[in-house]
Amino acid sequence: MKRLTWILILHLFSVSVQSQYYTESLPYDPEEPKVTNLHFFLHEFLSGSNPTVAMIAQANITSSDNNSSVPFSTIFALDDILKTGPEDNSEVIGNAQGLGILIADTNTTNLLWYWDFGFITGKFNGSSISMFSRNPTTVTVRELSVVGGRGKFRMAKGFAQLKDYSRNDTTIIAELNVTVIHY
Ligand SMILES: *[C@@H]1O[C@H](CO)[C@@H](O)[C@H](O)[C@H]1NC(C)=O
Ligand SMILES: *[C@@H]1O[C@H](CO)[C@@H](O)[C@H](O)[C@H]1NC(C)=O
Ligand SMILES: *[C@@H]1O[C@H](CO)[C@@H](O)[C@H](O)[C@H]1NC(C)=O
Ligand SMILES: *[C@@H]1O[C@H](CO)[C@@H](O)[C@H](O)[C@H]1NC(C)=O
Ligand SMILES: *[C@@H]1O[C@H](CO)[C@@H](O)[C@H](O)[C@H]1NC(C)=O
Ligand SMILES: *[C@@H]1O[C@H](CO)[C@@H](O)[C@H](O)[C@H]1NC(C)=O
Ligand SMILES: *[C@@H]1O[C@H](CO)[C@@H](O)[C@H](O)[C@H]1NC(C)=O
After folding, report:
1. How far is the CA of 53 from the centre of ligand 1 (A)?
2. Pocket lining: 122 vs ligand 5, CB cutoff 6 Å
3. Which family, according to the similarity comment (predicted)?
4. 31-60+69-182 belongs to CATH 3.40.50.150
């Protein structure tokens, strides 16, 4: 009800003052924020007929700066598959689309993710959460920050914990627990 009143006020305001590009600033009083926990598995295919990762570009750096097997300044496009379980035939619930940047310091490889996790089933069908975080691959359980969201996850904030479930040269399967506060 309160929200409807605001919408009416905002509407009247925008009609009466058309030269302004902003509305009056109102007290922030949204509905009670909700917290949702998600648990799912990310399936990433590095090669094969349907890879979910593709290299976009890599800087031409000298070999002395390039001692890592995955060198600094490589940019990848990602479209990983989200499933309810680690098995091949687990139900597909969405995908994680984004950019990954490989940041290798002297000995270790770190990744920087710009990622949108979108869901296609259940009550979050059509909604997505945005993550922007470093992902230090040498750490067993990595924490990624949730910085926003769309649809039911509008205004989301939170964090994800990610752990490799299995990893070989062709397939990476990771387990994620995500805690999201949203409206
Ligand atoms: C890469 O860098 C090396 C050394 O600076 C240079 O000789 C070479 O031409 C560069 N290659 C390309 C494709 O720019
Ligand atoms: C860096 O090293 C990797 C792995 O040895 C190699 O694939 C890549 O081509 C190298 N990049 C440059 C710019 O030398
Ligand atoms: C890479 O390896 C070379 C030879 O082992 C070494 O001299 C150089 O310092 C290393 N570079 C970095 C950035 O670790
Ligand atoms: C990098 O690896 C070398 C050889 O394994 C080791 O001596 C060195 O301390 C490592 N450096 C860092 C910053 O971990
Ligand atoms: C998800 O939403 C789309 C678009 O509204 C709809 O076409 C689709 O059937 C929905 N899927 C499920 C599993 O509810
Ligand atoms: C996710 O939560 C489940 C249940 O609490 C736990 O067993 C699992 O180890 C957690 N995984 C990660 C990556 O945090
Ligand atoms: C890599 O792991 C996947 C998923 O666990 C498995 O299906 C595949 O056979 C493995 N490939 C190799 C070469 O071990």
Report:
1. 26
2. no
3. Belongs to the plant dirigent protein family.
4. no
